[in-house]
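WARN retry 2 of 3 for item q-0093 after timeout on previous attempt; input resubmitted unchanged.
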Amino acid sequence: QSQFVESGGGLVQPGGSLRISCAASGFSLDHFSIGWFRQAPGKEREGVSCINVKGDSPTYDDSVKGRFTISRDNTVKTMWLQMKNLKPEDTAVYYCAARYGSRAYSAGDYEYWGQGTQVTVSS
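OK item q-0093 returned
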């Protein structure tokens, strides 16, 4: 059972922008670090970005650095991933996730997951 509700995915042309959202349901994010992961067909789930409880010191995978921005607002229990200058290789199902305490970089370290939202970059 998903503890998050994701939204905002879709089809976008190369070079375009998209923002995906993830809202927590039934619990507070105050003590949770959060992350975004993605999984393309035939590939393993990979980390895109993560951020700590306070919302500072974000980290990004090299493939998205300078193009993606992670953010969060604990007061509305929501996190976002702003994606710019999208490329066809960004096509994947994107998942939000949360873990209690400090941030982590491996999917296996996260306890709560969204249902995933499809992002397709194609002309």
